[in-house]
Structures are given as structure tokens and as C-alpha cells.
Amino acid sequence: MPAPTPPAERGDERGREPMAVSPEPSIRSRSPSLPPGSHYIGIDLGTTLLRLCAYHPDLQTVRFVPNERDKRKTPCFVAFPDDIELVESGRKACDPVVGEEAQRWLFKYPKATVFSWAQLVGLKFDDERVAFYQRYAPYRLVKDKYARVCVEIEHDGRQKHYRPEDLTAILLTYARQNAEQALRHPITGSVITVPAGYTLLQRDATKEAARQAGFQHARLISNAAAAAIAFGFDRPAHPTSVTEYVLSFNLGAAHIDCAVVGIDEEVFEVLASAGDVGFGAADVDVRLLMHFVQDLSKQSNRKLTSLDLLSLRFGAEKIKTALSTADSISHTIHLSSGAYAMTMTRELLETLCADFFDRCLGPIQQVLVEAKMDISKISNVVLSGGGSHFPKLRDRISSLFPGNHIYDFALIDKHKAVGYGAGVESALLSGMRSPNITNYLLIDSLSFSLGILDTTTNTIKTLLKRNTALPAQTTVTLRPMPPTTPPTSTPPAPIAVVKLYEGDTTDPKTCHLLATLSTPLPTQDKHITLSIDVDVDRTVLVTLVSDETEKNVRVTDYPMPVFDVSEDWERGVGVTVVGAGERKGQTGGEVEGMEIQD
Q1: Average pLDDT over the chain, rounded to an integer
Q2: Domain coordinates in residue numbering, the chain
Q3: 476, 431, 430: which is closest to 450 by C-alpha?
Q4: Residue among 197, 196, 207, 212 at smallest CA distance from 162
Q5: What is the pLDDT at residue 538?
């Protein structure tokens, strides 16, 4: 791997201050204002498992909150069994079931039992990840009127549609009720871990699920950042005058998270993050599944049903987990055509998944370059997530960091990392004070750049770069550009229209259109001022000022705006960026977009 660029001086183009300097008061003051006595809970919201964590001031540590079965982890399953069976089990006929209870309905009600839906949150139906998910799901995915993906459930003889965030809300409601029962006080807020590669739309959909579940406020942090926090509180004493840099790598079922985090006493600063959403340890299950199908195809009279594929998929998951500690395993999977017995070795698994391990290293290389961090500056490599169990992956990562300490939560306490970090953040938001979290602070950063469309080149002009520390603000000046073609009739009063995008390329087709806003054209020789303000919760506030007219749009309020073309689109004119603002500005180029209706 080519050596990454050496670290830049602090206070570089990311706009960061040296970590030894006390954080600005505004960072703390922008935490949510909930009533005194409010309690937060940390939630490790994985693709396949959910864990709850709470900080105990008396013990000065984070403890896991057990579910109703007195277990640390809850499978991410939601089922809608037949109403008669629900009534017989003592539940209301309209109640879904969650966790292990839902998991046992999978093979009886495969079209009414949903799992691993987190990777669908916030996606459009035409996203390629939706098609891949559908190949291995026993239920249908459909499109709603906004072109978003929904899960179709066959329940009580009818088809019902659920958005992925609706299913997450059911799971989070179960989690909140369990936490309130175990801790014996109301839970009003949550700190939820999500993949670093989640877009603002995916994050906002997750927040909406939390609101549906009864949480007044939800803060989202990345899995990699949470694991780094857990490492910081779990590590031996470190010299307080030295900033330590760690690389946190989290491999979940359907994502890779990677972050370079600076730790100065109890201040954790995410210098850069990268991820691969939709790719994770579950891809190993798919490789094994395909291998089993090919093997079975060589045997006569072996026709696979949809339930057989489910059995093979979950059998593959068990085999994968076993081979993280064993050299080989003999396993039998029961199919409709009879038992399928096989012996799988770790060597064969590693051969089948050779390119998988190669792809896992991509985010590591990316994040080192974006953090401008030399490998020699990394003191520890923190591994977390179920996928980090693979010995081959640990070996590949160790070879990238010769001489560096590999801090592997999978070997130390595999249940601890991500949930522990969420629990620490929940303690801060709950207003708890104890010696080891008195000065704790997480300084997170943007996962993707924010910019506007330059219509002279049809490219995105970046205004806030990815990895900018939060909160962040920028202001630019825009100048109206008259239409190049004279109108054939007397037009209505013209307006200036701006499109706001999220993404790291200059191609608008590969970026996410977040919002559009407009303002009346200013008088002659006047300019328009555009301000973008992103707080620590990644709520984006856009302000557009033209003469005496000011429009504020909170573009991440859920649901996201529906981008219908209105008649004002025909009379909208472009604007040009002519001056840099308070933090970052670009010059040159015409921008335009659709209007958000009041």
C-alpha cells in the first residue's frame, strides 16, 4: 500500500483546532434540551442483533441492559404471525412479535417474518442494493408512491406494506420498553449507532423510527466512533499531554466502518471516516450459500425450495461463525429433500472469500489518506463487529500496520465495543457526572460533502467538505444569472432557485438531492446570500437571503421533501457563486434547482 500523506498541521482545511485546546462552548450548548431527569439509553443497532447499554454512575462504567429473556442481545427479527396464534399466545391480534420469539416463526411464516432490513433504510426502490437483498429474501419488496422501498407482508390473508424504518420503530419500541422495565425509570432519549456511510436521508429515517418508538431525541454516532470511545475508556492510563491516534475498524453484517480518531484525555475527535454500506460479513454467508447450491446441483433429485434457501443461508451463518475459531466443521442442514451433510474448512472459506478480504482493506486505505495520517502515527488499531472474528482479516490488517498494537474486541469482549461507546455518549446527554466522564466529548464529522449545482458545467460545487468537524457553518454569496433564451410571453416574477446535494463526486447523478429552495430575485446589482448550518445531530439548516427576504429551510426534517416539479421551475433562473463566506466558499458557476413549496 502506498504511504499515505503525512499529517497536516492542525487547523488545516478541515477547519479544526488543536485537540489540546478546550472545545468551543457552542459544541456543548447545542446538545438537545430535554427536561431535567431525562434518561438516555445507548443502542447498538446492528443489522442482525440489537444491544442496549446504560451508564451506571456508581460503578463508573457501562452495563448492558438485558432483554425480557435476560439476554444481552436481541435478534433483529419482526414477525406478523397468524392472528389466531397470537391470541392463543396471550397477545393482541394486531401485535407484531420481536426478537427470538419472531425468529422462531421464520420457517412457518417466511412471508410475514422480516430480518436484516436495516440495510434497506432510506433507500429508493431502484437502488441496486434493493435488488440484491430481494434475491435472498422470502418476502417481496415493493415501491411506494415516493419510489421508496417497502416490505410487503402477507398477514391474516392480506398484503400490508411496511417501510424499513417502520420495522425499526417496532424493534426500538421493544428495546425502550425493556430498558424502562429493567432500569425502572422512563427513557426519553437514545444514542443509536449506525454505519458511517449512512446518508442524511438514512440517518433521518432512523431518527424517525426512534420518534415513532417514543424517544423524544435520538443522536446517531457511527459504529467505528463508538468502538473508539469504548477503547478510550478501556485502555490503560495514557500520558495526558499526548494526543493518541487510533484507527477504528468495524465490520458488521452489512457494512464496513472505518475511522481515524484522535484521543486527548476524554476528548474524541473523528478526523476522517469511510465506509462501505451494503457490503459486510453477510456477504460471506452468500458465498457459502452459493457454494452449497453448486454442490447440491451435482447431486441427483435435489430441488431447492425457497425455505431450503433460507435453511442454507442461516446454516452458512453458523458455519462462518464456527470457522472463526475452528479449522474445520462438520455440519448438517435439513432440507425438504433430506439432510445435507458437509464438512467445511477455514482454508476453503478463505479461498471462496479472497476478494472479500481485499475489499475490506479499501476503507482503511481511504481513511488514512483523508485524515492525512501516516501509519506510524497510529498507536492502536481497534477491531470490532462480528466480522472482525475472521483470523484471515486480522492477519491482513496486521500486515498493514507492522509493529502496531491490534486491539481486538472480538478477542477481549466481543459484546462490548459499539454498545459501550453508545452508553458513554448516552451518559453525557443524560447529564450524568462522574469522574471518568466529566470532560468527555465526542467531536464528530460530516460523512459526505454538501454542495450546490453549477449549471454552467452541470457539476456539484462543494461548500462543506466531508470530514468537516461538527457543528459546521458556511456562507457564500450568489449572483442571479438571467435566462439565456428570452421568454416568448410575459413571464411571472422571476425567482432564483438553488439545489442542495450530498455526495463526494461532482456528478449530480451520483449524489443525493437533499433539498431545493428559492427566493425572489433581488433588485439590480444585489446578491443572494446562502448559509448552510449543520449541528452536532446533523440537522441541516439552509438560509437563503435576497434583499429583505429571508427563507429558512430545515432540510432534514422527516419526511424528506418530495421533489415535484412546480410551475415555478419554468421561471427559475440560475445564480453564480461570487464570493467566499465565513468558512468555505467557491467561486464561479451558475446553479439552479427546483423550488420547495411553503
Answers
A1: 82
A2: 282-355, 450-591
A3: 476
A4: 212
A5: 92
| 104: CB partners within 8 A, 6+ apart | none
Return d(Cα 538, Cα 527) in angstroms, integer. 28
pLDDT at 472 over 90: yes
CA-wise closest residue to 52 among 210, 159, 191, 160: 191
Q: Please, is 313 exposed, middle or buried when counting C-beta atoms within 10 Å of its C-beta (0-12, 13-18, 19+)?
A: buried
* pLDDT tops 80 at residue 582: no
Residues 287, 317 contacting (CB under 8 angstroms): no
Q: 3-state SS of the chain: helix, strand, coil percent to 5?
A: 30, 30, 40
Q: What is the CATH number of domain 282-355?
A: 3.90.640.10
Q: Residue 385 pairs with which residues in a beta bridge?
A: none
> 413: buried, middle or exposed (CB in 10 Å: 19+, 13-18, 0-12)?
exposed
Tens of pLDDT, residue by residue over 493-546, are 667 778 899 999 999 999 998 888 777 776 666 778 889 999 999 999 888 887
Please tell me whether residue 588 adopts helix, strand or coil conformation: coil
| Spatial CB neighbours of 33, under 8 Å, sequence gap ≥ 6 | none
452 with 463: CB under 8 angstroms?
yes
Q: Determine how many CB atoms are found less than 10 A away from the CB of residue 341.
A: 9
Could you say which architecture CATH assigns to the domain 450-591?
A: Sandwich (2.60)
Residue 260 near residue 267 (C-beta atoms within 8 A): no
Whole-number Å distance between alpha carbons of 26 and 67: 37
Tell which phi-psi region holds residue 436, choosing left (phi > 0), alpha (psi between -120 and 50) or beta: alpha
Give residue-wise pLDDT tens across range 37-79. 679 999 999 999 999 999 887 778 899 999 999 999 999 999 9
| φ and ψ of 2, to 5 deg | -65, 145
Give pLDDT tens digits for 377-398.
999 999 999 888 899 999 999 9
